[in-house]
Every structure is written in C-alpha cells, then in structure tokens.
Amino acid sequence: MQSTKQSSRLYLILAVLMAGAFVAVLNSTLLNIALPSIMVSLDIQTSTAQWLTTGYMLVNGIMIPTSAFLVQKFSTRQLFLTAMSLFTIGTVVAGQTELFPVLLGARMLQASGSAIMMPLLMNVLITGFPIEKRGQAMGIFGLVITFAPAIGPTLSGWVLEHYEWPMLFHIVTPIAALVLVLGFFLLKKEVVTSSLRIDRLSLVLSSFGFGGLLYGFSSAGSAGWGSFAVIGSLTVGVISLVSFIIRQLRLDEPMLEFRIFKYPMFALSQGISMVLNMSMFSAMILMPIYVQTIRGISPFHSGLLMLPGALVMAFMSPITGRLFDRFGARLLAIIGLSLTVLTTFFFSRLTADTAYSFLVIMYTLRFLGISMVMMPVMTNGLNHIPQHLTPHGTALNNTLSQVSGAIGSGLLISVMTSRTASYATDLAANATPTTAPKTIMTQAMVEGINDTFFIATLLALFALILSFFIKKRPSETLTVVEPVAEKKYA
Prior knowledge:
Radius of gyration: 22 Å
Order of helices and strands: HHHHHHHHEHHHHHHHHHE
Distance between the termini: 18 Å
Strand order of the largest sheet: 1-2
CATH class of the largest domain: Mainly Alpha
CATH architecture of the largest domain: Up-down Bundle
CATH superfamily of the largest domain: MFS general substrate transporter like domains
Mean pLDDT: 80
Number of strands: 2
Structural class: mainly alpha
Shape: globular
CATH topology of the largest domain: Growth Hormone, Chain: A
Low-confidence stretches: 476-490
C-alpha cells in the first residue's frame, strides 16, 4: 500500500514538472519561427536576432552547472516554484515590450527559470525509476517535451499571420501562470537535510568559464572570429573553465563533479550528444531563414513544414524508450545517425526553387533519425554512473548541451554569413548588367546555406562514427553511495 502511495506521489510530481517543461519548450519553439518577423519589426539583423536564442542558451549555460548543488540543497517544490516564477515574469515582460534590449533581458529571465526546470525534471526521472524502466520513463518525458515542438512552429505561424509577435508571449503567459499555481498547491513541502555550501569562487569561475565560451561563439557570427570581443571572451572562458575544473577536482564537495567522466560510456554519450546538437541546430536556425527569406513562404506554411517532423519525433519518443530498454542505445544510434547524415546531406543541395514537398519529407526523416539518438544515448550514459552522481550527470548533460548548441549556432551562422558574402562578391563580379542585385543575393544566400548544411553533415558523420563504440550497461548493479542530501516528505 505504501509502495502504491509513493508511486502515485512520484507520478504527480512528474506530471507537474513535465507541465512546466512543456511550457518552457513551447515558448522556445514559438520564437524560432518568429525571428524573421521580429527582425523586420525591430529593424535588426540576423546576427542580432540570433541573440534571442543564443542569449537564452548563455544564461542556461551559466546557471545549469549550479543545478547539481541546487537539487541536493533545496526541495523539488522550492526549485519548481522559483523556476516557474522567473519564467512567468520573463514571459509577461517579453510580451509587453518592443525594445530589443528589454526583450532580450526578458528572454534571459525566462532562461534562468528553464535552467532550473530541466535538470530538476531529469534528476527526478533518473532517481525515481529503476534502470530497467528508465528508457520507458525517459520516452514519456520525450513525448511531452517534443509535443511542444510539434505544435509550436505551426501555432507560431498561424499567430504571426493574424497578430503581431508579442501575441506569442501573451499565449504562453496564462499557461505558465496556471502551471505555477498547480505546482504551489500540488507539490507538498519537503524537509531537506543537507550540509552542502556553494563555493563562491567555483560559482564565479563557472560563470566566466561557460559564459565566456558561450558569448564568444555566439558573437562570432556577427563580429567575426578575429574580433577582439570574440578572442577575448573565448580566452577568458577557456582560462576560467580550466581553473574551474581544477578547483572542482580538489574540492571534497565540488559544485560539479568532473570525475564522472571516468565512466567511459557517460563521456562517450556526452561527445555524441554535443556533436549531434551542433549539427541539429543547422535545420532549426537555417530552415526558417531559407523558407521565409529566400522562398517567400509565409510563417504559417513555414511552421507546417516543420510540423510532421516534430510530430514524428513526439510519436517516436515512447517507442524509442521501449526499444532502448530492449535493444540498448547502440543499434538505435547507428540507424538514427545514418538517417541524420543522409538527410542533412540532401539539405546541402538546396536551390532557390526546391520543392516544398521535398523539404517536408527530408525534414521529417531527419527528425525521425534524431529521435532515435538523443534520448537513448543520454539515458545510456546516465545508466553507467552511480545513482548518487545523477544530479551531477544531468547538470553536465544539460550544460554541455547548451554549450554545444551555442557553439553550433555561432559556428553555423558564421559559416553562412561569410560564405554568403563570398558568393555574393563572386556572383556580382560575373553578373551581366541586367542581373538584379536581389537575384545575386538570393543565390548567394542559398549557396551559403548549402555550405553550412554540408558542415552539419560532417558533424553528424563524426557522431555516427562515435556511436559504434557505445556499449550497453552491464547487468550487475553499480555500487551506490548514499547521496549528500536526503529529502523527506512531510
């Protein structure tokens, strides 16, 4: 009877946490389609608008490393209410402004809430289910957080055809507020016993380390790799991050446990996920630019283009979870990455009039492949570490995901910008007097996007090679050490 009560309690907590995660992911996907509209409305360039996504990742990258400490120091209820409050306030502010700096600040406030939410949810999932059922549990998690991308782009497109972009935030506001209220009443108070204290120097080094790297790579797309700001921030980031890692290895109670990388499968899973993240951002960033700016396709139909892929990814999540429990991550990763490599390569052969149906099919197949890789590889890596290290594992997983996303977006935007400029110069030199400048720029941008997708293809190919080294967790149980913090429900 007690076991049934604990199980029901666990599912109630998960339901509330997943609702919060759904809102956070929905908000992010709504904005991807809206970037071209925001660029026109606020009169900003692509490299500037990019900060609405990379700035979001910047805050995540700075805050997520502290999540391992926060999860052990504070209760699930305290962290959830704090995260949703920050996210809701940011959403309200974003919907009320038409000034880019204020909008960017509101997005960063949203990110501070999201940075707490996702590691918290993953930690509850990993620690709450036995290893043999984690694939199924993570599959359900995948279904929930991929349903938001499934409806996000299409909903965003429809809204943008009928209203201005602030309406996207107005839609999310009441949902976020409702989830916050539900969390307040449904999540019970917990008594947390922990002697952990945050190491202030570690916090400073972490912020400058991950923040410097994220800022440097994110700025490269607009400022160029040779600019003082990029070189300076990357230098500060590398020095601070190395100092942070050295300090963590010397502390008895580190803020982030880097010794976790001594488990080979966890280290391999992070390598595959980071490379795939960098490749995945190519379609997420470049496809809306291609279909709206070059093809002149409406935001609504741009969202419809991405809908089947997101639906397939959502539909496959629970299925992939069950397949993972049965066959392991290696087979799924090899099949999924092979499909990802192939479809990404086809995207490197776009023209100014590529068939809309071809774009839909390739985009859908690409996300089918990605759905077979992300969750199984991540879960397999976490399965290879002792349970008391799970908060550190989820924190590192989410941190490296944000860092790789920023690196990928900065790298890809930089490649597209530089290659487009190079092609424009060559085409203008060889153009006839009757050739319209707009035609030259359109063709140059298409070729620049193609080159960027080819780089993404090489990244996906590298991830495919790494996937052949994946091993399934041995059946024997890992030695479990008692966690530092103990949570008791009142």
